[in-house]
Amino acid sequence: MKLAIASGKGGTGKTLVATNLFYALQQLNYQVVLVDCDAEAPNDMVFFKGEKIKYFYVHQEIPVINEKKCKFCSKCHEYCNYNAIFILPDLKVIKVIEDLCHGCGACDVACDFNAISTKPVPIGSITKYAIENNTFIIEASMNTGVFSPVPIINAAIKEAKNEKIVILDSPPGTSCPFINTVAEADFVVLVTEPTPFGLSDLKQSIDTLKIIDKPYGVVINRSGIGDTEIYNYLKQENIKLLLEIPFDKMIAFYYSNGELISQLEYQWADKFVSMFNFIIDQYGNSNN
Amino acid sequence: MKIAITSTGNSLESNIDQRFGRCAYFVIYNTENKAIEFIPNPNKDKEAGAGPAAVQFIASYNVDKVISGEIGAKVKSILDSLKIQMIIIKEPERKIKEIIDMLENN
Q1: Higher pLDDT pick, A262 / A100
Q2: How far is CA A12 from the centre of its chain?
Q3: B50-59 and B73-81 helices cross at what angle (nearest 10)?
Q4: pLDDT of A288
Q5: Region of poorest pLDDT, from A63-72, A80-89, A227-236
Q6: pLDDT tens digits, residue range B31-66?
Q7: Looking at residues A21-35, what average pLDDT do you find?
């Protein structure tokens, strides 16, 4: 079972839910792996102590143009969706803007003169930590200035491919990093807050999940603030409310100290486990 | 000599556009025959790489200089290698007409 914890809006509590769920399952001796897919700002390890047991770089292939073979036909430039190939045919100038390259390889396919080869450039890294009870955290981390974290996120998820229970702490937003993370999940837990901003971004996430046909449920964090619109929406759309986490100073206090509410107040561990069991009952299948 | 100036609109009364890659118009000014041409920036709304695309666009007009409010790092290195001189005018209220006058009086 792969469970993605995601949200459209940033700062709604994805990491709070992901880390507490991981902790609660770990304490019951479940073989669980938490993958921190928020490669731009991974912080799940703030809440755990562990030993680094694996580390490797993730590379992206960047084109290298052989100017002797290049006929300055501009075909590679036309194939490139990201403006990463700069060409002035009249002046016989061609350059690769490496920062813009997504490593898709289209330029290499486009070239009829065999003038393009590639070189690997490191764009980030994967670190695997051993935590208590034979559980693991896999952290994706992107280098500063890299255009897209997607290849790093994919490498991190791949690292957990043989595990039985995987929690994917998704990056915020609803663009490629989010889509690549939730696409790998069997179920998506959308964390939101009862504010107009939270609702607007929740709708965007749900629209995206509908297109890729993923089952999902909602966790409302900081309940008690804002308004009731989000509850009306969930009711109207018949969307399952999995859990509510109240707006509580102590929860915020623990979290900002790098502590887990499930460790400090046992009722919270129970709530996360109940949510997990509900998801397994409804959406788990015998293959996983 | 030809000079490209980034502009917010298509008249001499328009202000200089402080953005290079995502400016609204390029003004191509020819110092020899005094010709002034306003060209809409075709790459203004590109998702990514508007800067390099803009250099490619203005370089096709064989300009020697470019005048804008701000030029990013990716673009600077390309302009340098093409030997196109960069002139930065961080005055958003400055009109195209005034910039051309300044070029004339220099």
Answers
A1: A262
A2: 14
A3: 20
A4: 44
A5: A80-89
A6: 999 999 999 999 998 888 899 999 999 998 999 999
A7: 96
Of A88, A90, A97, the CB nearest to B49: A97
Residues of A in CB contact (< 8 Å) with B are 82-84, 86-88, 90-91, 93, 95, 97, 99-100, 147
Domains of chain A: 2-58+124-283 (3.40.50.300), 67-114 (3.30.70.20)
Closest to A86 (Cα-Cα) out of B92, B60, B14, B23: B60
Q: Which amino acid is at B101?
A: D
Minimal CA separation from A86 to chain B, in Å = 7
Kindly report each contact of residues B22-25 with a partner whose C-beta sits within 8 Å and lies 24 or more positions away, as own/partner: B22/B50, B23/B54, B23/B68
Residue A222: pLDDT band (50, 70, 90) is very high
CB atoms within 10 A of CB A73: 15
B-chain CB neighbours of A91 within 8 Å are: 59, 82
Question: Beta strand pairing status for B36-40 and A241-246?
Answer: unpaired
pLDDT at A287 over 60: no
What pLDDT does A83 receive? 87
Q: How far apart, in Å, are the Cα atoms of A117 and each of A108, A127, A230, B43? A: 7, 30, 52, 28
ipTM over 0.90? The verdict is no
pLDDT, tens digit, 9 for 90 and up, residues A158-197: 999 988 999 999 999 999 999 999 999 999 999 999 999 9
Q: Which residue of A has its CA nearest to B53?
A: A83
Length of chain A equals 288
Domain limits, chain B: 2-99
Strands across the sheet containing B36-40: B36-40, B25-30, B2-7, B65-68, B85-88
- Report the CATH fold assignment for B2-99: Nucleotidyltransferase; domain 5 (3.30.420)
* Structure-token match 């030997």, residue found: B83
The answer to whether the Cβ–Cβ distance between B49 and A147 falls below 8 Å is no
- The SS3 of residue A43 is coil
The pLDDT score that the predictor gives to residue A285 is: 63
Q: Token pair of A283, please?
A: 């959406």
